[in-house]
Every structure is written in structure tokens, then in C-alpha cells.
Amino acid sequence: MFRTLLIALLVQLPFSAHATEAQLLGEPGWTQTGKASYYSSRLHGRRTASGEPYDETDLTAAHPALPFGTLVQVTNTYNNRAVVVRINDRGPFVGHRIIDVSQRAAEQLGMVRAGSARVQIEVLDPDQHSE
């Protein structure tokens, strides 16, 4: 029974996360692949979960679990365009998505017209990257 439940839960995961013992959630090198979407312009100025206002011109993003301030490289797997964003919000909470990026980040990724894209995200070392 337990094994069946565990398998059922694992099959329903909306993303694939790759981690070794040395690469735990939020540590440099941790990756995740799945679907990305972007924030509506209507949310511009609203408070994010970190307390700062959402600014559609900033390179920021929402992730359900990564610590606030984490720098993540988001790569659109369709066109290989990439952007570095800073996690400052929680979400997305719909549609098996792994990350919501700001309007500016979505433009740089080339995903505005489609509304979403398959992406790979990788946590960056903050000592080697700046926004």
C-alpha cells in the first residue's frame, strides 16, 4: 500500500528536479526542468511574498520553494535563450508550472507571445553572478 501511494505521488510531480547529495534545493548547480509562465502586467506594484513590490521591469521570478534572493538562470529549451532572475515571490500555483518570471524576463526568453515555455532552471553561485 505504501509503495503504491509513493509511486502515485512521484508520478504526479509537475516537474523533474535533479539533485545529488551535494546539490540540494537552493544550492549552486541544482536544476529543475518544467513549464514557465510569466506575471501579468496587472500585478505590477503588488506586494510579493518577500514583501517587495512586483516590478515588471526587474529580472525577478516566483518559485514555490527556492529561498528568496536565490539567483537562477532560466533557459528556454525551445530557443536556448537564457536570463538570470532573482527569486522574490512564491508560486506558481497552477498548471504544473515550476516558475513564474517577470514581464522583462519573459521578453528576454522569447516567451511572451506563447505565454509559457518549457525551461530549465539552474541555481547560480551568488559569489560568481550579479543581477
How would you explain this protein's 3D organization?
- The protein is an alpha+beta fold and 131 residues long.
- The protein is built from 2 helices and 7 strands.
- The protein has a 6-stranded mixed barrel with strand order 2-6-3-5-4-7.
- A hairpin with a 5-residue loop joins β4 and β5.
- The longest helix has 10 residues, at 2-11.
- Residues 1-22 have low confidence and may be disordered.
Largest sheet: 6 strands, mixed, barrel
What is the assembly state of the chains in this entry?
single chain
Give the spatial strand order of the biggest sheet: 2-6-3-5-4-7
- Structural class per helix/strand content? alpha+beta
Count the beta strands.
7
How confident is the prediction overall: mean pLDDT? 85
Shape by Cα distribution = globular
Percent of residues in beta strands: 25-35%
Report helical residue fraction. Answer: 10-25%
Number of helices: 2
Summed up, what is this model?
The chain is of the alpha+beta class and 131 residues long. It contains two helices and seven strands; from the N terminus they run H-E-E-E-E-E-E-H-E.
What's the structural blueprint in terms of helices and strands?
Layout lengths: L1 H10 L4 E3 L12 E8 L21 E3 L8 E6 L5 E8 L7 E5 L1 H7 L6 E8 L8
Give keywords:
6-stranded mixed β-barrel, disordered N terminus, alpha+beta, 2 helices
